[in-house]
Amino acid sequence: MSTQKEGPVPGIPYFTSLSSNIYLLKTALLTSSSSSAMAKSQALQSNLDVDYVISYRFAKTDKATAAAKFEKLCEALSNVGLQTEVRNGDSHSVLLFVRVASDEHLFGEVYRSRVRDWIHGVRAAAPSKETRESLEAEPLYEAERLRTIYQLITNPVSEGGAGITPKEGEWESVESIFALHDHAYNKDWIKKWSSQWFLNTEDLDDIRNRLGEKIAFYFAFTQSYFTFLVFPAAFGFAAWLVLGSFSPIYGIVSAVWCTVFTEYWKQQEIDLGVRWGVKGVSKIDIKRRDFQHEKTNTDPITGEQVGFFSASKRFQRQLLQIPFALIAALSLGAVITTCFGIEVFISEVYNGPLKSVLVFIPTGILTTVNPILNTLLTQVATRLTDFENYETAAAHDTALTQKIFVMNFIMSYLGIFLTAFVYVPFGTLIVPHLDIFNVAVRPFAEDEKQLHHTTTSWSINPDRLRKQVIYFTVTAQVVNLGMELIVPYLKRRGFAKFKQFQSARAAKNGGASPSAAANDSPEDSAFLERVRKEAELDVYDVTADLREMVVQFGYLSLFSVVWPLTAVSFLINDWIELRADAMKICVEMQRPVPWRADTIGPWLDSLSFLTWLGSLTTSALVYMFWNQSAGPGGNPSTIQLWALLLTVFFSEHLFILFRWAVRIVISKLDSPGLQKERRDRFLVRKQYFEENLSAMEKIPRMTDNGGEITRRSLEDDARQSSLSDSTPEGRFWGRQRGWRETATVAKGLIEQAQNETTTERKKEL
Amino acid sequence: MSTQKEGPVPGIPYFTSLSSNIYLLKTALLTSSSSSAMAKSQALQSNLDVDYVISYRFAKTDKATAAAKFEKLCEALSNVGLQTEVRNGDSHSVLLFVRVASDEHLFGEVYRSRVRDWIHGVRAAAPSKETRESLEAEPLYEAERLRTIYQLITNPVSEGGAGITPKEGEWESVESIFALHDHAYNKDWIKKWSSQWFLNTEDLDDIRNRLGEKIAFYFAFTQSYFTFLVFPAAFGFAAWLVLGSFSPIYGIVSAVWCTVFTEYWKQQEIDLGVRWGVKGVSKIDIKRRDFQHEKTNTDPITGEQVGFFSASKRFQRQLLQIPFALIAALSLGAVITTCFGIEVFISEVYNGPLKSVLVFIPTGILTTVNPILNTLLTQVATRLTDFENYETAAAHDTALTQKIFVMNFIMSYLGIFLTAFVYVPFGTLIVPHLDIFNVAVRPFAEDEKQLHHTTTSWSINPDRLRKQVIYFTVTAQVVNLGMELIVPYLKRRGFAKFKQFQSARAAKNGGASPSAAANDSPEDSAFLERVRKEAELDVYDVTADLREMVVQFGYLSLFSVVWPLTAVSFLINDWIELRADAMKICVEMQRPVPWRADTIGPWLDSLSFLTWLGSLTTSALVYMFWNQSAGPGGNPSTIQLWALLLTVFFSEHLFILFRWAVRIVISKLDSPGLQKERRDRFLVRKQYFEENLSAMEKIPRMTDNGGEITRRSLEDDARQSSLSDSTPEGRFWGRQRGWRETATVAKGLIEQAQNETTTERKKEL
């Protein structure tokens, strides 16, 4: 804990220079050591106008088919106005370079996308029918351009695309479609961030412009979370010094903070969505390509043939989620519970021989069995979600995220739940039964008496809960971060070494080395080598990073009352995490396709769920463990079920009430995004009004006629007679012509009425 | 209860003919008995093209000012293209008839309104700039026309209206602005409804076309509620026969029904909103005219000067809601609790003299004190809401509705809550202390022993709760309905009698009778007399009727487990209520201004709140009173606090889970409204695409060039040298021209790679 108190300050300059060095080191690794320094720098600086690279792998196909398919690929791309160049790739692959040659197709795609946005309310005004003009008024930013080109390549032919679907159906040989990193920008990015305390909105705008809104939303979320963490870190530190653990004051402040943060973020999403012009894009349904239809129906609206899959059949398949959740809960739960039991027994009950060795058993089991189980369950979850056969990408993602959240929930929090709500209240009842383990180690026992002695004198270890929370919020976070950064690096390093060894062996065996670079022109070779390395990198998955943050938030909302320094640890961790993720995207991953998003998606629900659950666990923990006279202090005999339930019940409803109040207050606040939205709307409206109302001005006012008619008002009788042959309506409306006549008649009526009153009053007197 | 079992069937034909007769009777009352039958019928049939009638009352102003103001009124109306006719009104008022003379201003208002709708997403497509054309394509329905004219009269001059604000500021003498009833339609309406079991969507469309969406939404809600009631009525009847009171099965079914209904209605609102073209109108902020600004700020968006009122100041004022709620709860609570105490004491404990008289004390107190308190508190609530000074009409309505809901909640449900959760569990502790009343009646006591005897032998009356629920769900509903129909009728009758008497006295005193009809032309007199009567009618307030329905729903969700026949009573009551409300609008009220709405507004929140609270009360009641072996059966000694809390806790969370599931299922369902919305969007998109994509077709495909270049592919070397002086990008992209060349080169690369593998494999062999 003493390392925590030192704070992040002395570490940061070191990290700054370190991270810059790591970046240089890593990017250097991407270019071969054999090329000259000039060419290396050149290869890093320029992408030679390449928009996308398509990696085409033909190892599993025969020569003729591969060549024919490739020809088709080139033709399809050419049909949508893309220019192609082919170069040799690594082991049985070629790299197809693609750039936009004819703007018309790109503009067509942009127009189509903008019309779709406008129909769904993402844009306030309809796009001008002159695309070239409107593009000049509102030029594409880099991410938008890349996204549009990607859609041009992958969209079905019927929607104006080339219909290339990587790794699927006809295009199984198309391994990946990726854009090239902008290394000059990346270097500046990492350098800037590593010397900056807080990221401002311009930094996020920058990410949005380069990597698209989906990734920008992850960084915006983490940055908001990081900024919000400053308060609980400071307050938590004070609480740790003054109040100690399980303080109800800390519990309330923490719950309030979590609620405010969750609600603030919801508003922030809207704001950023408007700022980035993507508000509402998540409502645009994108059809899933893998969707399997039972039959085709004629859409009653569009008249098109659309695939149909009955909802009841999907519901039946969704019911499989119940056994899945049960199996996940039971298998993961069984592993965690077993390890928990063994650990409690060995560390607290058992005092026999080999204790120093046996104590590692649970850690051993957890670190081997859990990742295997996790991988297995994730595969099952993915298959199950595929089987559920959703029509839209959004529905698919939500369903998958929910399953993954359930698994993560069990893996991350079950251990602490067991300690708090099983071990402490029921420990004295359960732990003696852990004797079964005793039987196993009995052969090793030196004397019988020692074993007997320990089991009887056992009492609950009150520090276990705190230690466990510290483990999850400090140790596990650091380990995670290390794994994220170092493992892929080592993996890549090892892979490079293996290939070096392989080609060396090949060179030893035969004369001609099958090097991919053999045909490269000397001018391009550094560039091509870099592209070949980038082709081998992994695809970045932003949801994994989001999941990590949400799980971390869960520790804070559920258990931070156990150890108030939690937020301090997270604050430090997240500062590094933000930068490490940026570096990961730049160095260890292919440049991601810049998808749009206007939310962090289903994880937002997880966030709300964790905040709500926090109101239950925090109040329960405070009631059970607060060591003051008011509470029962973790002694099971003094815990009253009714009092616990009452505490939780009140806490939950206070939370719901408070959340409602926060929502109202936040909805009232104005923000730059909302202002922008109103301004856009106002401008469109103003334009329309001005066009129309200028026409209105020309209408002659009826007053003009009125003046004319007043002169004629004396001719009343003449008119009366002329009306006699018209309709009742005509007669009714014909009596007074123009407002002046009406006013004159009314004056008479008013005077008459007033006179009558006066007369009447006089008579009465 | 036996009257309930008879069912509504025999009653309905009677009601049908009765209601027709009442309608004829009542409308006949509107026309004077002195005019001829022909004229009467004529006056009822035709509105003589009158769009609106403005009642101008000058009793409190002097002659000159009244006439000058009236002149100004006529001029303002004329300026917006309205023709005016003035006629004499009743006692110191004139009636100003208004109709549209120049369409341009009306069209301008329609255009302005449609642009506003389009900007806010209410309309899918922008309105055509040629209003006359677009009006021909999409003509105004009656309610739309009337609303537009009303807005033309009342909107500020700056927004193109005449700026007439009834009863306010400059226009204080303008008493009311109302349209005339369409009696021919009204008669058909009542006749049709009284012979119809269920109302279908066309009936609701009809109301929407005549009376506007806001009133149509009330009828749609009540109709949906009525239809939904059929199931709980049938199930409740079966439960009453088989299961008895407090059955957990009935409780679950009832909670499920309430949840499904609430969520269904939310979806139905969207559907109807789309059907009626008003989806999203509640999001269009309408500025409140009474809004008092502290200072004027320049709007950053529009550049206009707008009133500003600081949110913190409003929040301080809103804090007054806390003392208000406390005072309301305490005062109403005190009255109800006192009456409850007296009633329990007199009916159950007291056995002394005058019991038969004393038993009416609580009813007497309730019926006198409660309405007074209610009126007082409603006034305070209205003033408080005015004081809170909301900027928009919607915010004002919500704030007022919330306050009124709190008051209604206390008045309607507190009594039953007291019985269920105070009287039963704590009755044995509290009731003996009600002895204080004993002291008061002691003088009347005949013998001391009798008094003493009763207090000790007292035990809880298990039937009290059921009786109370029956009172509120049957007796009170019938009384309410009666009050709603009969009291206004008697009031109007009495008022007419009083005026008759007055004018008779005036005629006796002086010669000249100040009759309003004195100046009427014989042709118009019947019509004018009818208009004068309509001018005196009350203004219809749809929220009062909505409140009644929501409060009724509350009994069902909160307490119907006590008496399962509740829904049967409501089913009968609501069938009549729907028709009675229609009649009320037609006969007893001025024709309402047809406002738009896309929801039942803040009452929707009340509905959700009551559904949620129902999950708590129903489970608690079932736990406490279920007379089987499983539960404690209402005997206070057997009620365990922890078990009660656990029951409620589980029930609430089951409810939340179930509501979530229902929401998901309902959101998946397609509906005619949603289909219409999609169709509208699709058509707009299609139109845009077609215009643009026809231009796209003309772009020459790159393939054409490809063929030409293949021929040249042998000239490779020559091209290489010609490229040497261009940029690196130019050189990179110049190597292969056209997709055919790329494919050819790729073929070579693929062959080479395959050959190498073969060679390598051979060598290894």
UniProtKB/TrEMBL annotation, chains A, B:
<feature type="transmembrane region" description="Helical">
    <location>
        <begin position="322"/>
        <end position="346"/>
    </location>
</feature>
<dbReference type="Pfam" id="PF20877">
    <property type="entry name" value="Anoctamin_N"/>
</dbReference>
<dbReference type="Pfam" id="PF04547">
    <property type="entry name" value="Anoctamin"/>
</dbReference>
<dbReference type="GO" id="GO:0005254">
    <property type="term" value="F:chloride channel activity"/>
</dbReference>
<dbReference type="InterPro" id="IPR049452">
    <property type="entry name" value="Anoctamin_TM"/>
</dbReference>
<keyword id="KW-0472">Membrane</keyword>
<feature type="transmembrane region" description="Helical">
    <location>
        <begin position="249"/>
        <end position="265"/>
    </location>
</feature>
<dbReference type="InterPro" id="IPR049456">
    <property type="entry name" value="Anoctamin_N_fung"/>
</dbReference>
<feature type="transmembrane region" description="Helical">
    <location>
        <begin position="405"/>
        <end position="426"/>
    </location>
</feature>
<dbReference type="GO" id="GO:0016020">
    <property type="term" value="C:membrane"/>
</dbReference>
<feature type="transmembrane region" description="Helical">
    <location>
        <begin position="638"/>
        <end position="662"/>
    </location>
</feature>
<protein>
    <submittedName>
        <fullName>DUF590-domain-containing protein</fullName>
    </submittedName>
</protein>
<feature type="transmembrane region" description="Helical">
    <location>
        <begin position="215"/>
        <end position="243"/>
    </location>
</feature>
<keyword id="KW-0812">Transmembrane</keyword>
<dbReference type="InterPro" id="IPR007632">
    <property type="entry name" value="Anoctamin"/>
</dbReference>
<dbReference type="GO" id="GO:0032541">
    <property type="term" value="C:cortical endoplasmic reticulum"/>
</dbReference>
<feature type="domain" description="Anoctamin transmembrane">
    <location>
        <begin position="207"/>
        <end position="680"/>
    </location>
</feature>
<feature type="domain" description="Anoctamin alpha-beta plait">
    <location>
        <begin position="49"/>
        <end position="174"/>
    </location>
</feature>
<feature type="region of interest" description="Disordered">
    <location>
        <begin position="713"/>
        <end position="738"/>
    </location>
</feature>
<feature type="transmembrane region" description="Helical">
    <location>
        <begin position="469"/>
        <end position="490"/>
    </location>
</feature>
<feature type="transmembrane region" description="Helical">
    <location>
        <begin position="553"/>
        <end position="572"/>
    </location>
</feature>
<feature type="transmembrane region" description="Helical">
    <location>
        <begin position="358"/>
        <end position="377"/>
    </location>
</feature>
<keyword id="KW-1133">Transmembrane helix</keyword>
